[in-house]
Write a structure and sequence with these properties.
The protein is built from 2 helices and 7 strands, in the order E-H-E-E-E-E-H-E-E. The strands form 2 sheets. A 5-stranded mixed beta sheet has the order 4-1-3-2-5. A two-stranded antiparallel sheet has the order 6-7. The longest helix has 7 residues. 13% of the residues are buried.
Length: 95
Amino acid sequence: GSVAIDLNLLEASNILPFERVDIWNITNGARIQTYAVEAPRGSCTIAVNGAASRHCSLGDRIIIASFARMEADQAKDHTPTILHLDEANILQAVG
């Protein structure tokens, strides 16, 4: 399985194609690890594919998280990128 993410959202979140991501399903409590792939730019697509799709249904609210390794002094100054999307996966805010 993988998760296809609109290329605009991948770029806004700094997630690279084939980067490992965690998906935390708020609706049903499932937690899975998979990898990101590009969905067409402007499509607003976030689609969980393959075997991973058994853990998510259309309309579920999910969190997609990626992680970075860094030294403690770098972590103190690091600000994560957080995208807030609406029900149609349209970017509402970056914070």
